[in-house]
Design brief:
Elements (H helix, E strand, L loop, with lengths): L2 H12 L3 H23 L5 H32 L2 H5 L5 H30 L4 H28 L3 H15 L12 H13 L9 H24 L8
Helix pairs in contact: 1-3, 1-5, 2-3, 2-5, 3-5, 3-6, 3-7, 5-6, 5-9, 6-7, 6-8, 6-9, 8-9
Length: 235
């Protein structure tokens, strides 16, 4: 990885309007947890708020915005050719971009979910589970969405289709899709690490291997795609 590229990517994220949205998403989750607790007078439903809203929507949306923010605009307007003209490995460029997006996503997702769990009055194990799920999910989603944003100028749309159609829509109807669901991998790993019960039916070995493949292949696919990006433009 190249620290300079990662630093520039972080600066780009902070200087965009999407930076405000990145912060707003976990903040809305915290406010939702507070509102539910105040209205009901009881602790929030860990599964309902933290899993069905936090892990299923907030974490992937944060990762999608971050991944597209560090690479998508450059691919879209063609300015990535100037970066690729430098004597830096394109796999290093992809890894550096992913690292920046993952770092921001992990902080916002883990802290946001843990804060929502604490504000919602759930147990200490669920606070830990929320932080773990936010961190693991953010790492995996950013790898997947970095590959998508490097592959197409419509990376944001592709990511939304995956989140809303594959994981949220068809995932509830076709149980077999859990084997290609980042959310399912994250839930299974979190279940073991934090010793909580997650709504997922999957072997731990498969979840760990699949998560590793998403991470490694996502970054490698982004590097491979950048390697094929022509200096005269692409697509």
């Amino acid at each position: 990885m190249n620290p300079t590229i990662s630093r520039l990517a972080l600066r780009a994220l902070g200087g965009q309007r999407r930076g405000l949205v990145l912060v707003a998403l976990p903040l809305v989750l915290v406010l939702l947890a507070v509102a539910v607790r105040l209205l009901t007078g009881e602790a929030i439903s860990a599964r309902g708020v933290l899993v069905e809203v936090g892990l299923a929507l907030v974490v992937p949306l944060v990762a999608l915005l971050a991944a597209n923010g560090v690479l998508g605009p450059e691919v879209d307007d063609g300015s990535v050719v100037y970066l690729l003209s430098t004597p830096v490995s394109r796999y290093s460029v992809a890894a550096s971009k992913w690292a920046a997006a993952a770092g921001v996503s992990v902080v916002l997702s883990a802290v946001g979910l843990a804060a929502a769990a604490w504000a919602g009055g759930v147990s200490g194990r669920w606070i830990l589970a929320s932080a773990v799920a936010g961190a693991v999910g953010a790492v995996l989603y950013t790898a997947l969405f970095t590959a998508m944003s490097s592959a197409t100028r419509h990376g944001m749309i592709a990511g939304l289709v995956y989140i809303l159609l594959i994981e949220r829509g068809l995932g509830s109807l076709l149980t077999g899709l859990r084997y290609v669901s980042v959310q399912s991998f994250t839930q299974r790993v979190t279940e073991v690490v934090a010793d909580v019960e997650m709504p997922v039916d999957m072997g731990l070995g498969y979840a760990v291997v699949a998560a590793g493949l998403v991470l490694v292949l996502g970054v490698l696919a982004a590097g491979w795609r950048l390697q094929r990006f022509q200096l005269r433009g692409d697509e």
